[in-house]
Amino acid sequence: MAVIGAEIGDLNGLNTSLKRQSGVVDTLLSERTTQVQ
């Protein structure tokens, strides 16, 4: 059970880092489109 809990924690961490990365990408894209306009 402890191992499963650790794996779920790792998945949550991955989701958080992925969301953070996609947020950075969104910010870069919005900055770029603003410059283009």
Percentage of residues in helical conformation: over 70%
Secondary-structure-based class equals: mainly alpha
Number of E-state strands: 0
Using only C-alpha atoms, the radius of gyration works out to 16 Å
Strand content: under 5%
Q: How much is the average pLDDT?
A: 83
Q: Biggest sheet, open or closed, and with what strands and sense? A: none
How would you characterize this protein structure?
The chain has one helix spanning 2-36. The model has no long low-confidence stretch (mean pLDDT 83). With 37 residues, it is mainly α. It is built from one helix and no strands. The longest helix has 35 residues, at 2-36.
Chart the SSEs and their pairings.
Blueprint: H1 2-36
Provide keyphrases for this structure.
single chain; 37 residues; mainly alpha; 1 helix; 95% helix; rod-shaped
Summarize this entry quickly.
This protein has 37 residues and is mainly alpha-helical. The protein is built from 1 helix and no strands.
